Amino acid sequence: MSKTETTGTPESNMSTDGKDTARRRIPLLALLPLIVFSLLALLFLVQLLSGKDTSQVPSALIDKPAPEFTLPPVDGLTRDGTAVAGVSRADLLGKVSVVNIFASWCVPCRQEHPLLEDLARSGKAQMIGINYKDKAENARRFLGTLGNPYDLVGADENGRAAIDWGVYGVPETFIVDARGTIRYKFIGPLSPEAYEGTFLPELEKILATPQG
């Protein structure tokens, strides 16, 4: 009897080909997150080189009513010996408000904090803080160390209110007129230059507008 070579069946060959194809696809799938990240980084770089201010990203909420929200106070937070209340949309009516989204774990929030303190001392607007995904003890320590510029502070523990406000990340700062309409949004930390050259002029413009 002659010795014959053994070959796989068509079905086994197809199975092998399928596995080879799957193995070839895996590296492409593994590279997909890197490709997406690279494209986003390229887009940011193009914006940066074009001279556009990335803090001025258009918001769909500009000139729209502030969202309905009700946030409890940060547990145990006091100011001058008095408990600091939480905040809701109703608190935005009747006066111009600066709404600042902050967190104790946010390094840029620390960088802009002296400017918020300066704004609070000026008395130009009601100061509202939304404490984003933070622990009460950390928020108390943050404000106890740096100072509390806020008249009201709401604890947004699950981040839901920030989503409703269209927040990209912390910090972000809004100017809301006395009718409860969002008039301006600043993305990222306020720098002294942006504060003096952009934010304060926008606030003064809104303050000068009849608020009836």
Q: What does the model show?
A:
Helix content is 42%, strand content 17%. A five-stranded mixed sheet has the order 7-6-5-8-9. A two-stranded antiparallel sheet has the order 1-4. The protein has a two-stranded antiparallel ribbon with strand order 2-3. It contains five helices and nine strands, in the order H-E-E-E-E-E-H-E-H-E-H-E-E-H.
Output the radius of gyration.
Answer: 26 Å
The amount of helix comes to: 40-55%
Q: Find the structural class using helix and strand composition.
A: alpha/beta
Strand order of the largest sheet: 7-6-5-8-9
Shape: globular
Would you count the extended β strands for me?
9
Mean pLDDT: 84
Number of helices: 5
Q: List the secondary-structure elements in sequence, H or E.
A: HEEEEEHEHEHEEH
Identify low-pLDDT runs.
1-7, 10-15, 43-55
Terminal-residue CA separation: 106 Å
Beta-strand share of residues? 15-25%
- What can be said about the biggest beta sheet? 5 strands, mixed
Q: Key terms for this structure?
A:
single chain; 212 residues; alpha/beta; 5-stranded mixed β-sheet; two-stranded antiparallel ribbon; 5 helices; globular; disordered N terminus
